[in-house]
Write a structure and sequence with these properties.
Order of helices and strands: HHHEEHHEEEHEEEHHHHEHEEHEEHEE
Number of strands: 15
Distance between the termini: 58 Å
CATH architecture of the largest domain: 2-Layer Sandwich
Low-confidence stretches: 188-197
Strand order of the largest sheet: 1-6-7-8-3-4
Shape: rod-shaped
Number of domains: 3
Structural class: alpha+beta
Length: about 525
């Protein structure tokens, strides 16, 4: 027969290790999936540029109203929808999305242009303000006239940015923002490459509106905050978080090992020791961990204890049976051989005595076999829903010539046992009493949920040295008179199979047996 190859299965320790490493790696893996956080930083940067641009646009609009003629103004701003005309506030919300908006190439270079003289005269007033704002905010500021020529900010004064896409939208009176690739003047640090936000720059173009006409454009740009740099700034908190995660992982490992792994391995070790015949291994575990593990270990050890007891019982039973069968078989064999070898030299009386011995030993074997069958049935009886009472059970026993059976009390109290099994129970008790010289056998029952049956006789009683052994199979003090030592063993097995108990109680004379059985509520 071809051997089936065992399927590979991971060990419990390996599974636990993988789980713990996964728990540890989750925070680190999260650093590579922070696009949501990066997107928030981009919108935050756009919002800051909107706020700064609104202040500059308001200041520039005030100057234009005071010093610039209407002829120098640009395109008319598109009329707002009717639903927005009555509203006093018209906020500009950040709208860039790193996942949806395309990242355009770097901003096109400026071209030559001629600024409007009236607006160009206002440029010097704002150049210093824009330079100071750039030093504080790290944003680039350009102030453009209605034709897109830079009149203040940076080194591009007098150059035209009208060809830039977002500037073109702003010159038409619409707010515009774009994501563009960043031109770096030095290599990007390797650690920063994990952040997509370090490779782009945000451009915002905000129209300056005077009397519903475009008076210019505030053009701004800035690199969004870097996630890695931000995390580095929070390194103290991150270190505490890492320590907390590590401590939590170690605590999980400790709890798992103590509550699951350690008891499981100890139970496996006990299993191997029990299989090797180590009786000392059938004892409670030193540590159970969880309730389920305690119940599992308890059930397993209880099963091992019962199997061990059954093995001992079978071994003892086999020894006793072989001994009990060997004696009459040897006697029968000896008598038969003597009868065979005697020819005609044996007198009739001797021959009759040997025949009587053979018949007596044969009857003893038959009685022993019957008792063994009754014991096997008693041990394998399943408690069912049948009930019986002392009165109806005694009525099925008939008359017992050796002793009188009396019911003193509780003859109608019912207990959970079939009438047939109850008859076997009382018959063996009565037979045991009769064999020990009893003339009267008295019964009494009491209780409802649990029925207690008292069985008393006026026989010789049980000597103190035999009290602990009377329920053991094959123990008897009347072997010479045909006793098999199985009667009380059958009683004990039958009561146990019905979830009851039997014990020998103290009595002034004779023997008293106390039997408890489930009652009928």
């Amino acid at each position: 027969m071809r051997r089936v190859r065992d399927k590979w299965r991971p060990r419990l320790g390996f599974v636990v290790l993988v789980i713990l490493l996964t728990v540890l790696a989750l925070p680190l893996a999260g650093l590579f999936f922070f696009r949501v956080y990066e997107n928030q930083l981009i919108r935050q940067t756009e919002g800051e540029l909107i706020g700064q641009g609104a202040v500059i646009a308001a200041a520039f609009a005030a100057e234009v109203r005071a010093a610039v003629p209407a002829s120098s103004l640009g395109a008319t701003v598109p009329e707002r929808p009717a639903s927005e005309r009555s509203e006093r506030l018209h906020p500009i919300e950040p709208g860039l999305d790193l996942a949806l908006d395309p990242i355009l190439p770097p901003r096109p270079a400026s071209t030559s242009g001629v600024p409007d003289p009236a607006l160009a005269a206002l440029g010097p007033k704002f150049s210093g303000v824009l330079d100071i704002a750039q030093q504080s905010t790290l944003a680039g500021f350009r102030l453009l006239d209605p034709s897109g020529v830079v009149i203040a900010g940076g080194s591009e004064v007098g150059r035209s940015l009208a060809g830039v896409e977002e500037v073109r939208d702003a010159l038409a009176g619409q707010y515009a923002s774009r994501l563009r690739s960043r031109i770096r003047d030095r290599p990007t640090p390797p650690l920063y490459s994990v952040s997509r936000g370090t490779m782009l720059r945000i451009f915002v173009a905000m129209p300056v509106v005077v009397d519903d006409r475009v008076a210019g454009v505030v053009y701004m740009s800035r690199t969004p905050s870097n996630v890695v740099k931000h995390l580095y700034g929070e390194r103290g908190k991150l270190a505490l978080a890492a320590i907390a995660i590590l401590a939590a992982t170690l605590m999980i490992a400790f709890v798992f090992i103590r509550t699951v792994s350690r008891p499981m391995y100890e139970l496996m070790d006990r299993t191997a020791r029990i299989a090797a015949g180590d009786r000392d291994a059938i004892r409670p575990l030193s540590h159970h961990g969880t309730r389920e593990m305690a119940e599992l270990a308890g059930a397993f050890l209880d099963m091992a204890r019962k199997l061990q007891a059954r093995s001992d019982t079978i071994r003892t039973f086999a020894t006793h049976v072989s001994h009990e069968l060997k004696s009459p078989l040897t006697a029968i064999q000896g008598a038969a051989e003597l009868l065979r070898d005697s020819d005609d030299g044996m007198d009739a009386a001797t021959r009759a005595r040997f025949h009587a011995n053979i018949v007596a030993d044969t009857e003893r074997l038959n009685g022993l076999v019957r008792r063994l069958i009754e014991l096997a049935r008693a041990e394998n009886t399943v408690s069912g829903g049948e009930t019986a009472s002392l009165a109806e059970t005694v009525s099925t026993l008939g008359t017992e010539p050796r002793l009188a059976i009396e019911i003193e009390a509780g003859g109608d109290i019912r207990f959970r046992m079939s009438a047939e099994n109850a008859a076997i129970l009382l018959r063996n008790l009565a037979d045991n009493s009769a064999r020990h010289g009893a003339k009267h056998f008295r019964l009494a029952a009491s209780g409802t949920g649990t029925v207690t049956i008292l069985a008393d006789d006026d026989g010789n009683g049980v000597p103190p040295e035999n009290r602990a052994k009377i329920f053991e199979p094959f123990f008897t003090t009347r072997r010479d008179s045909g006793g098999t030592g199985l009667g009380l063993g059958i009683v004990a097995a039958l009561v146990k199979s019905h979830d009851g108990a039997v014990a020998l109680a103290d009595s002034a004379s004779g023997a008293r047996f106390v039997i408890t059985l489930p009652g009928v509520a």
